[in-house]
């Protein structure tokens, strides 16, 4: 049985996962957070981490200890950081940086905690995620995701982060989850949908939109899991 943890910062981001399990007879609920598909040989732990890096790191560590997943997937929203992206696009992380972490300048890469272990990036799984995203009609962007303990809604700050890190997206948890997973040697990938463009209009964009895009990461991940377990 392959164990996978699907985590999100907020209830709104994880609810589509539980709704999908409830309507698909191939899955059954083992307990409050664990769902199993015997045919596929998958056990999925779905959980809310809470907003921000501290919540994300703390609860990820708990999940790794309790569940011992082979792969952790962080689903949810993010702010777009590339020119030409749109709300609802999918972003997939293959590198992660903390924009508000600054250690001594001793040759360490910006946004990386010194002496931390390298991220375990599931490259083949990411490739299949991209293929499936195209099949579902979701524009998809793969690259670095930046993380900070603040909601990014400032065009000037956005440009500063772009100039320093060249990311595809910004969120408040992914790099923290990635760091904890790396320390334990567990594969990690963030699969998020753009809720806004992380600019001066970001907050207004979120407040005035109601298009159920939070369902996209869940649909994409579950479609990919049912397609190729060998990639995990």
Keywords, please?
single chain, 232 residues, alpha/beta, Rossmann fold, 7 helices
Task: Describe the structure in your own words.
With 232 residues, the protein is of the alpha/beta class. The protein has a single domain (2-231), classed as 3-Layer(aba) Sandwich (Rossmann fold). The chain contains 7 helices and 9 strands; from the N terminus they run βαβββαββαβαβαβαα. The protein has a 5-stranded mixed beta barrel with strand order 5-8-7-6-9, surrounded by 5 helices. The mean pLDDT is 93.
Describe the secondary structure blueprint for this structure.
Layout lengths: L1 E7 L2 H13 L4 E2 L4 E4 L4 E7 L4 H15 L3 E10 L9 E9 L24 H14 L3 E8 L7 H11 L3 E3 L2 H10 L3 E10 L5 H7 L6 H11 L7
Parallel strand pairs: 1-4, 1-5, 5-9, 6-7, 7-8
Antiparallel strand pairs: 2-3, 3-4, 5-8, 6-9
EC number: 3.2.2.9
Keywords: Amino-acid biosynthesis, Glycosidase, Hydrolase, Methionine biosynthesis
GO biological process, one term: L-methionine salvage from S-adenosylmethionine
């Amino acid at each position: 049985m392959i164990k996978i943890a699907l985590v999100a910062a907020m209830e709104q981001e994880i609810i589509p996962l539980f709704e999908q399990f409830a309507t698909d007879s191939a899955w059954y609920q083992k307990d409050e957070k664990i769902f199993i598909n015997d045919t596929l040989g998958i056990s999925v732990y779905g959980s809310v981490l809470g907003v921000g890096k501290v919540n994300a790191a703390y609860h990820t560590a708990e999940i790794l200890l309790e569940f011992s997943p082979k792969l952790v997937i962080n689903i949810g929203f993010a702010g777009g950081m590339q020119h030409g992206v749109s709300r609802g696009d999918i972003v997939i992380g293959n590198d992660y940086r903390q924009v508000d972490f600054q250690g001594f300048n001793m040759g360490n890469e910006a946004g990386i905690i010194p002496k931390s272990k390298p991220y375990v990036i599931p490259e083949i799984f990411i490739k299949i995620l991209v293929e499936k995203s195209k099949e579902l009609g979701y524009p998809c962007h793969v690259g670095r995701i930046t993380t900070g303990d603040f909601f990014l809604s400032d065009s000037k700050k956005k440009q500063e982060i772009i100039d320093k890190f060249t990311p595809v997206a910004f969120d408040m948890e992914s790099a923290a989850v990635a760091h904890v997973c790396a320390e334990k040697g567990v594969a990690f990938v963030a699969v998020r949908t753009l809720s806004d463009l992380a600019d001066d209009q970001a907050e207004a964009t979120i407040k005035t939109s109601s298009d159920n895009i939070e369902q996209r990461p869940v649909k994409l991940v579950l479609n990919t899991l049912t397609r190729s377990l060998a990639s995990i």
